[in-house]
Amino acid sequence: MSRFAILTPTSGFPTAADTVNGNVSLNDGYTWIEMTNTSGASRSVTLFVPQGFDADLLISNRTYTMPANGVYGTGVFPMSFYGPNLLYTASGSGISFRAISMRGDV
Predict the structure, then answer these.
(1) Is 4-101 in CATH node 2.60.290?
(2) Collapsed DSSP state (helix, strand, coil) of residue 79
(3) Which of 23, 39, 77, 104 has the most CB within a 10 Å radius?
(4) pTM recorded for the entire structure
(5) In the chain, where are the structural domains located?
(6) Total Cβ atoms within 10 A of residue 99
(7) Which residue from 106, 39, 104, 47 is spatially nearest to 74, judged by alpha carbons?
(8) Of 56, 104, 58, 106, nearest to 81 (Cα)?
């Protein structure tokens, strides 16, 4: 499966969600994702957590429910849990993403 890439540290324009393959953004540990829903219906976005915290303590994926025609922001994502790439998928069309690094030295 190949995911549609969203550039960081600053993606100037939002990128449409790839509802089939998902999306990927570089993660520097200070990444913020802006999600916009223009579909007129509620949608969800799942952010995958590929790392476990401990041998017997797993962290589940994060799911964000977005109201119709809303903008939602979330972040930052520690690299120790999320890794150098953020992987996420939208439940339907009308979602766009913009990834932004909040690092001060970039």
Answers:
(1) yes
(2) helix
(3) 23
(4) 0.80
(5) 4-101
(6) 25
(7) 47
(8) 58
